Amino acid sequence: MARRRQLYEGKAKILFEGPEPGTLVQYFKDDATAGNGAKKGVITGKGVLNNRISEYLMMRLAEIGIPTHFVRRLNMREQLIREVEIIPLEVVIRNVAAGSIATRLGIEEGTRLPRSILEYYLKNDALNDPMVSEEHITAFGWAGTADLDDMVALSLRINDFLCGLFLGVGITLVDFKLEFGRLWENDEMRIILADEISPDNCRLWDSRTNEKMDKDRFRRDLGKVEEAYQEVAKRLGILPEAGVRDLKGPEAVQ
């Protein structure tokens, strides 16, 4: 494996220096966490599946004009991506009540929301990613009003497209998390989609049975976690031909 300089390691991915300026290599791990790291485990083959699923969804979004950091998949666990300045916010789009919104507002899980609801959370594990408002975001300079306008417009377009795409394969997109970054090209800046889109950061339910097909199976000890991720990939038509055998990442250098 190539020796590359490791720049960052998160809960589910590692970022390495890219082969050319302005690029990074994003490596998908099998590690799984819940509760901001309070619960830890390994989902065998998750990194391989998330790499393929995220690649597929990013490419489909690019086809409808959504700008993303994705360049191309390099191998079973790695992608080449554009280097961006990550905005320290998570944008959560909710279509069906589940998770924290059901708990906070006393809504029965599975209730279809009157309309898609957008929420913002500050990316800060030490603070448990607190929910914040547009007032907080602009007052503390995490993003400007123009940035937020772009993020909201992109998020709603992404939601509309992905809801239809998943419904077409018998899956309900309950909710999901997006991250965005600033891409600088010469003196121009634009907001683009970053991170990943996979069962790690989407709630995906079988449209007929409401069976969970995402990381909630790990969070709630429901079992058959690997099978759920594989089923999502299978329905999207992208289950790796070689299966989800392990593939070691590049050796990091300091």
CATH topology category name of the largest domain: D-amino Acid Aminotransferase, Chain A, domain 1
Question: Poorly predicted ranges (pLDDT <50, ≥5 residues)?
Answer: none
How does the helix and strand content classify structurally? Answer: alpha+beta
Secondary structure: number of strands? 15
What is the number of helices? Answer: 6
SSE arrangement, N to C: EEEEEHEEEEHEEHHEEEHHE
What number of domains?
A: 2
The CATH homologous superfamily name of the largest domain equals ATP-grasp fold, B domain
What is the averaged pLDDT score? 93
What's the gyration radius in Å?
A: 18 Å
Distance between the ends: 16 Å
User: Which CATH architecture of the largest domain would you pick?
Assistant: 2-Layer Sandwich
How many strands, what sense, and barrel or not for the largest sheet? 7 strands, antiparallel
State the oligomer: single chain
Features:
alpha+beta, six-stranded mixed sheet, 254 residues, 2 domains, single chain, D-amino Acid Aminotransferase, Chain A, domain 1, seven-stranded antiparallel sheet, Phosphorylase Kinase, domain 1, 6 helices, 15 strands
Tell me about this structure:
- This protein is 27% helix and 35% strand.
- By secondary structure, it is an alpha+beta fold.
- The chain has two domains: 3-84 and 225-243, Phosphorylase Kinase, domain 1, CATH 3.30.200.20; 85-206, ATP-grasp fold, B domain (D-amino Acid Aminotransferase, Chain A, domain 1).
- The strands form three sheets. Strands 8, 9, 10, 11, 12, 13 and 14 form a seven-stranded antiparallel sheet that branches. Strands 6-7-3-2-1-15 form a six-stranded mixed sheet.
- The radius of gyration is 18 Å and the shape is globular.
- The relative contact order is 0.20.
